[in-house]
Design goal:
Elements lengths: L7 H15 L5 H15 L3 H27 L12 H19 L1 H19 L15 H17 L3 H14 L1
Helix pairs in contact: 1-3, 1-4, 2-3, 2-4, 4-5, 6-7
Amino acid sequence: KGIATQMPITSFLFGIGILAIMGLPPFNGFVSKYLMLFANIQAGHIELAVLILIGSVIGAFYYVRLLQVVFFEKYEGPPLKEAPLPILITLGVLGALVLVNGVYPEFGLSFVLPAVEYIAVSSSMNIQEIPLISATWSLPIIIPMIGALIVYFIGKYSIKLSGFSTVILLALT
């Protein structure tokens, strides 16, 4: 509970991983869930797409609860140090890749497409083409995403300033 106050960097990177598992944009989990849904719908398996969505919603309740416990509950344990530097570097690289592949999905897919093409040609399987995903991030999308983080961190110091910054961000969008 509340370990984010003791290990903020590790907890932040954990949060990125959880949000990616939930399949939220701008994280790479969104791209993979989108591709699973796309493939099922294109193949006529609507029931499987619905099952994936139901599983995602059920999982989201669990993951949101995890985030709540880590970030918003009070820590009542012994003082802790941040994770060791080699672990932080590794987690940081993975967190950056999660974000890069979510914001720029063509990067990750460029590694997958040659393998898919090779399998399709060598096995004579009728493999459906992977759709090109191009993410565009306009200001009405970016402002609330970054704004939510800003409001959160301001709120840790002043509820009043957090309220004012929320109104300003809403006016900008």
